[in-house]
Write a structure and sequence with these properties.
The model has no long low-confidence stretch (mean pLDDT 97). It is built from 14 helices and eleven strands. With 396 residues, the protein is α/β, with parallel strands linked by helices. The strands form two sheets. The protein has a seven-stranded mixed sheet, sandwiched between helices. A four-stranded antiparallel sheet has the order 8-9-11-10, covered by helices on one side. The termini are far apart. It has two domains: 6-254, Aspartate Aminotransferase, domain 2; 258-395, Aspartate Aminotransferase, domain 1 (Alpha-Beta Complex). Helix 7 (166-175) links the parallel strand 4 (148-154) and strand 5 (179-183). It is globular, with a radius of gyration of 22 Å. Bound molecules: pyridoxal-5'-phosphate. Pyridoxal-5'-phosphate is lined by residues 85-87, 111, 154, 158, 183, 185, 205, 207, 217, 219, 336. Pyridoxal-5'-phosphate (PLP) binds at residues 85-87, 111, 154, 158, 183, 185, 205, 207, 217, 219, 336.
Length: 396
């Protein structure tokens, strides 16, 4: 059979009749207890409990199994572990592969709670973290120690949006037998295929684009053959499990991921290009822009972009930014992204979250998530915001 196109896979993935009972969508199967009518069937379920067999609610039900199959089909790998949020996927993936005395390489541009986990939890356990410059390629060799076990990437990086050279870092990491983990949330399985680029474990904050409607928290970690058994069993031992209602909604979100991302991309590029021309803007930080760090890796490795990017302003301060942000009509302020709605956040001091490489930006940053609204409405909203910013700056 010919390989299915990604658009088709998004529609069909995980819809085996075994899970769906021949409905289009798998039913929401809620369970703590699974009951058996014979010793034989109980023994069989126990023997197969790690392999999508009804055994006990914590191991999942058919709703979970359908979504796990779908994620594996779309991202690659051999198995998918589910977590109550993206952060739990990150922390449990790391915890599954480190022990006291180990050393971890963490990208300097990681999502803030990922850094916090390294600094506040791993450090307490005796696991040392070295933050590395996201633009390191061959130079990563110098940071690998005899006790390094994991390299973690997030590409593009949170807020500053550097695109990493994932294949080069993965190749070098494998020469040293490290486990390669990637937070692939920005691209989703649509725009970056992690296992084609050497990743061992691909993490999604499914909370963002997969769910897509800002109403569910969920995380996934898809692993290859090398890492699946250990990831699955350690995550299970740590009691990680998810509600079938949430998983159902994630599965429903997944079906429209392709079309949503296309529209996010189109809207975002229009807004970003408009912003790049504004006198208030020093530069736009978006992987599809030629001056973005790692743009060449974006062109080489990604199929497209999504809706999250940042801009650096020429100047600004808390009062002026407040005037801009407080009056927005279509953009809301919120800590998440990946839903259908536009969001905006100010970041006055990115260097608080960077240790390997500090940035010397002209002014404060805005992080935007461009939703599915009409682009002219969004641009009009930003234009009015800049007017409010300029009024305050002129008075100072
Ligand atoms: C890149 C990235 N990874 C992971 C997460 C964490 O996801 P969750 O909020 O589901 O814990 C976020 C959340 O903003 C994120 O931006």
């Amino acid at each position: 059979m010919a390989k299915k196109a990604l658009e088709t896979q998004i529609i069909t993935a995980g819809r085996s009749a075994k899970w769906t009972q021949s409905l289009v969508n798998p039913p929401v199967s809620r369970a703590s207890t699974v009951v058996f009518d014979s010793v034989e069937s109980m023994k069989k379920a126990t023997a197969n409990r790690a392999n999508k067999t009804l055994f006990y609610g914590r191991r999942g039900t058919n709703t979970h199994f359908a979504f796990q199959d779908a994620m594996v089909e779309l991202e690659g790998g051999v198995g998918c572990a589910l977590y109550p949020c993206g952060t739990a996927a990150i922390t449990n993936a790391i915890l599954s592969f480190v022990k006291a005395g180990d050393h971890l390489l963490m990208v300097d541009g990681a999502y803030e709670p990922t850094r916090d986990f390294c600094d506040k939890v791993l450090a307490k356990m005796g696991v040392e973290t070295t933050y590395y410059d996201p633009m390191l390629g061959e130079g990563i060799r110098d940071l690998i120690k005899p006790n390094t076990t994991v390299i973690f990437m997030e590409s593009p990086c949170s807020i500053t949006m550097e695109v990493q050279d994932v294949p080069t870092l993965s190749r070098i990491a494998h020469e040293h037998d490290l486990v390669v983990m990637l937070d692939n949330t920005w691209a989703s399985p649509i725009n970056f295929q992690p296992f084609d680029h050497g990743v061992d474990i691909s993490i999604q904050a499914a909370t963002k684009y997969i769910v897509g409607h800002s109403d569910v928290m969920l995380g996934t970690a898809v692993a290859n053959e090398r890492c699946w058994d250990q990831l699955r069993e350690h995550s299970y031992l740590m009691g990680q499990c998810t509600s079938p209602d949430d998983v159902y909604l994630a599965m429903r979100g997944l079906r429209t991921l392709g079309v949503r991302l296309k529209q996010h991309e189109e809207n975002t590029l229009k807004v970003a290009r408009w912003l790049a021309e504004r006198p208030e803007v020093d530069h736009v930080r978006h992987p599809a822009f030629p001056d973005c760090d790692g743009h060449e890796f974006f062109l080489r490795d990604f199929k497209g972009s999504s809706g999250l990017f940042s801009v650096v302003l020429n100047r600004g301060n808390a009062e002026a930014l407040t005037a801009l942000l407080d009056g927005m009509e279509h953009f809301s302020m919120g800590y998440s992204w990946g839903g259908f709605e536009s969001l905006i956040l100010a970041n006055e001091n990115i260097n608080r979250l960077r240790t390997a490489k500090k940035h010397d930006f002209a002014g404060p940053m805005l992080r935007l998530h461009i939703g599915l609204e009409n682009v002219d409405d969004l641009i009009g909203d930003l234009e009015a915001g800049f007017e409010r910013l300029n009024v305050v700056l002129a008075q100072q």
